[in-house]
Design brief:
The chain has 3 helices and 7 strands, in the order ββαβββββαα. It is α+β, with helices and mostly antiparallel strands. The protein has one domain: SH3 type barrels (Roll). Strand 4 and strand 5 form a beta hairpin.
Length: 137
């Protein structure tokens, strides 16, 4: 068993394919697997975090600023299963208030409404709150 929890942000390397749009390399990853699975499995489910605030119009992108993680975006469309390793560096844990937005973005990645209509209105109050926190240039 391990002490990895849902919402933990861990840094580790995933092989990077330079001819691919799949995120890899050494970076922060957000654990999105449930805690029961984390406690008893040798694998977990993660999504990457990028150090750029980009494409916030996409319903699968969740902006964050938390702990040692500066302004970043959780990319919930890039879900992957990885082997749990002992050399991972835990850098923080997102609070339930932020994980609620991650859950919504994951739902959009897997269960988006057909027809392309925008169904991410639940994120709009969070985006306004986050915008107020960011320094204005």
């Amino acid at each position: 068993m391990n002490d990895l929890k849902r919402g933990d942000i861990v840094k580790f390397a995933v092989p990077l394919d330079e001819n691919s749009n799949i995120i890899g390399g050494y970076r922060p990853w957000l654990v999105v697997q449930n805690n029961k699975g984390n406690a008893y499995s040798d694998t977990t489910i993660v999504v990457p975090i990028t150090g750029h605030m980009k494409r916030l119009d996409l319903p699968t992108h969740v902006p964050i600023v938390w702990g040692d993680i500066g302004p970043s975006t959780v990319l919930c469309e890039q879900v992957r299963t990885v082997d749990i390793q002992t050399d991972w560096k835990k850098v923080g844990t997102l609070p339930p208030q932020v994980m609620t937005h991650v859950d919504q973005a994951l739902m959009m990645a897997f269960f988006a409404a057909e027809g392309g209509e925008k169904t991410y209105g639940v994120l709009e109050p969070f985006l306004r709150w986050l915008q107020a926190l960011l320094p204005h240039h």
